[in-house]
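Workshop exercise sheet. Pairs work together: one partner reads the sequence aloud, the other fills in the structure field after running the prediction. Swap roles for the next sheet.
Pair: D.N. / O.F.
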Amino acid sequence: MTYVLLLGAALFHGLYGARNILFELNPSAGLKKVISTVLLLAGLGLFAFGTWAAIASHALAKTL
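Structure field:
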C-alpha cells in the first residue's frame, strides 16, 4: 500500500513538473491541451503498471 501511495506522489510530482517546464515554452492553447492529455494518460498508464507490479511482487513474496 505504501509503495502505491509513493508511486502516485512521485508520478504526480514528476509529470506536473514536466508539464510546467513545457508550458514555460509558451505553446499554443491547443498544444497545451495535448501536452496535458498526453501526460495524464502516460501518468495513468504508469500508475496502473506500477500498481500491478507492486501487488504482483507482494503476492509472489507471500508464496515464498
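Discussion prompt: The longest helix spans residues 29-63. What would you look at next?
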